[in-house]
Amino acid sequence: MDLFGQFRAADSLFRLATGDMEHVTAYPFQPTGRSPAPASSPLPASLPEQQGVPSESILKFFRLLEDDPTLCTHGVCILRHGTRIAEAAWRPYSTRMPQMQFSLSKSVVGMAVGMAEAEGLLSLEEKVRDIFPDRLPPLYLGKPGDVTIRQLLTMSSGVRFNELGSVSEKDWVRAWLLSDCEFTPGSRFSYNSMNSYLLSAIICRKTGQSLTSYLTPRLWNPLGIGVPFWETCPMGVEKGGWGLYLTPGDMAKLGQLYLQKGRWMTSSGWRSLLPENWVKEAMSPQISCYMGEREAWYGYQLWSLPWSDGCQFNGVFGQYVVILPKEDMVIAITSGNGQLFEDNTLSHIRECFCNASLSPSPLPPAPQKIRALSSLLASLHVISELKPTALPDPRPKFFQRFRRSHVAPTPVLPEAACYNGRTYTFSENRSLLLPVILACVHGNFPCGIRQLRFRFGVDRARFWFYAGEVCHIVEAGYDGNMLASVLNFNGESYSCRAGVRFTQDEDNRIVVKLFLVFPDTPCIRTIKLIFYGEDGEKMLVRMDERPSAARAAEMFLNLITGGRKPEELLPSGVQKLPVFSRMKLLLCPKLNGTWNKEE
Predict the structure, then answer these.
(1) pLDDT at 356
(2) Of 110, 180, 324, 332, which has the fewest beta carbons less than 10 angstroms from its beta carbon?
(3) How many Å apart are CA 523 and CA 546, to the nearest integer?
(4) CB within 8 A of 355, min separation 6: which ones?
């Protein structure tokens, strides 16, 4: 990275560590203007046994996902022989709502490059300097310009300009070209999302249109995927390495396209969307690497599996498309755990589906297992504390055989209702109602919470969060019922589902736990209100989120710094603040509030 770029990156780290959140990015936040994507057409569905898969294996798989404390699965779609045999979401997530894909987006960029090469629009041996001659400074001698498209595809460019640069720079292409290389391009692997961004920018330059527009007639429409939203950089180019929104069903279709060697059945018959030789190369080892602690290989913007000849699209926090050629299966998963690359999901897939229980021909029906599977899928909830408590059916067992029902609990006012209508005020702070991960990904840093008012009714709770001059109103349901709200931060709207739970701590203080789920993202914000002091005149607010913002920050900094402490990257003369330790104070805040008795 050039000297000025180093200082700009250092300035971003400095502002983040000192809590100057509004000025972390080098450019003002602009709302994305995203709108709901058109509905996608579903793939044909059948019972698992009709496709040679025992329902017992699927039941076991979902139980493993549900019981694994390291996972936070949100949605699953399973295909066999191109047919959908299972699909489910953990409430309040939905299989119909597109969700952030993070680095899984890279694999779609790889598809676009394959299409452009097949159309003769580019060559994998082309150099970046020849594609962007207008972005080069005079007398340019930098190594990044000699990087080829192939080296971008295989993460072997070695260019130092990384994800942190996307925060500190406005023109990402020019900053990438002005950077330097940590090794000779093509000599080894180094994961860098800005390589994928360059591929996106190259597609835009070569085609004269946006990446999304280029893919619409070539990928989205033939696959029956409603044209998805893809976030753009400050210059209007799709981010490439992240920012794409897809449903689990959409994700599964992309994996199925690779499984079918680039061919897809349309209304007019089979159509080749990707050249077969491209698919073969993309799914083959192109460069050796490490995925976490294990040895792996990387193809064209996708990863190997640890046990088979299959491969995976992969995004941080547990976004997967797992392609299993031997089993003729595709499994798409969205999650919200704290893992960077791989989690236990892959071992559960291997245990349940990569064995002798699968059959090439249909299996006998298993109605009891199907009923058990249906019952389990109906009970899934992303927040275990909010799972509704079903009461026993008081009717005779004879009638229970024909119809299952539960007696709804009688609505009652929660104990916390004694504080209804109160307003609590907090000292100046940087505690965000918006999950910190979303704030960082979007560069959207709203004001901290200065006041909180609430009312607990018979069937729902209502909260008024005052931040700056804005009031955010959240309605939350009881007993697992999560109510919808729309929160607006700096002009950007975020859909939200909220539920609340009442309990007491070890000191018998009333505790209110508010859960905010942002269902098109992996993020869940947890806000715990603890009343204490005489007549509850004081309030302690503890805020956390899942995936953990602290864990995510640690992973991100380790990725872009190569394991070094962030402060070691700051140029000489810049104050060496303990960046990560200061960030922890911002990522897991605690607030002390006082009741405004005069109101």
Answers:
(1) 79
(2) 180
(3) 6
(4) none
Q: What is the C-alpha to C-alpha distance for residues 78 and 567, in angstroms, rounded to an integer?
A: 44
CB 16, CB 9: distance < 8 Å = no
Amino acid identity, position 209: Q
Report d(CA 450, CA 431) in Å as an integer.
Answer: 9
Strand partners, 45: 84
Q: Is 245 in contact with 230 (CB distance < 8 Å)?
A: yes
Query: Residue 251 burial by CB count (10 A; 0-12/13-18/19+): exposed, middle or buried?
Result: buried
The C-alpha atoms of residue 213 and residue 590 are separated, in whole angstroms, by 45
Q: What type of residue is 237?
A: V
Lowest mean pLDDT among 93-102, 235-244, 476-485, 574-583: 574-583
Strands (DSSP E) found in 351-448: 423-426
Q: For the chain, what percent of residues have pLDDT higher than 70?
A: 87
- Which residues lie across from 331 on neighbouring strands? 78, 322
Strand, helix or coil at 45? strand
Q: Which of 255, 295, 297 is nearest to 279 (CA)?
A: 255
CATH number attached to the domain at 52-64+76-353: 3.40.710.10
pLDDT band at 392 (very low <50, low <70, confident <90, very high): very low
pLDDT grade for 404, boundaries at 50, 70 and 90: very low
**Percentage helix, strand, coil, to 5, in the chain?**
35, 25, 45
Q: Is 50 helix (H, G, I), strand (E, B) or coil?
A: helix
Residue type, 35: S
The DSSP result for 94-142, as a single string, is -TTS-EE-GGGHHHHHHHHHHHHHHTTS--TT-BHHHH-GGGSPTT---
Residue 139: per-residue pLDDT: 80
DSSP, res 145? G
Nearest Cα neighbor of 479 from 560, 406, 537, 578 is 406
Domain boundaries defined on the chain: 52-64+76-353, 415-595
Strands 303-304 and 269-272: unpaired
346 torsion bin: left (phi>0), alpha (psi -120 to 50), beta (else): alpha
Q: Which two tokens stand for residue 88?
A: 């489910």
Q: Is the dihedral of CA 563, 568, 571, 577 positive or negative?
A: positive
Report CA torsion sign: 362, 363, 365, 368: negative
| Residue 395: band (very low, low, confident or very high) from pLDDT cuts 50, 70, 90 | very low
Distances in Å between the Cα of 231 and the Cα atoms of 21, 34, 112 are 21, 8, 16
Q: What are phi and psi of 50, to 5 degrees?
A: -65, -20
Locate 500 and state its tokens: 């609340």
Whose CA is closest to 541, among 594, 593, 463? 593
Is the pTM higher than 0.70? The answer reads: yes
List residues bridging with 475 in a β-sheet: 462
